[in-house]
Design goal:
It contains 2 helices and 4 strands. The protein is α+β, with helices and mostly antiparallel strands. A hairpin with a 4-residue loop joins β1 (about 1-10) and β2. α1 runs antiparallel to α2.
Length: about 60
């Protein structure tokens, strides 16, 4: 599901590239959420439960 992630700690912006759905930017994401995402056994499941639809976002590509 997730191809890659990037994070700007100063602006608390998470960018997620999906395998089949493009790149999205999520605003206001705490660094603890990023750490938990990266440590999750299932990154897709964690993303669905803790990030998707919980933060303002926009599609970039």
């Amino acid at each position: 599901m997730l191809a890659s992630v990037g994070y700007d700690a100063a602006r608390r912006i998470l960018e997620v590239e999906f395998l089949h759905h493009g790149i999205y930017r999520y605003v206001g994401v705490e660094s603890a959420i990023l750490r938990a995402l990266l440590a999750a056994e299932s990154k897709g499941r964690y993303f669905q439960a803790r990030i998707r639809d919980r933060y303002p976002h926009e599609r970039l590509a």
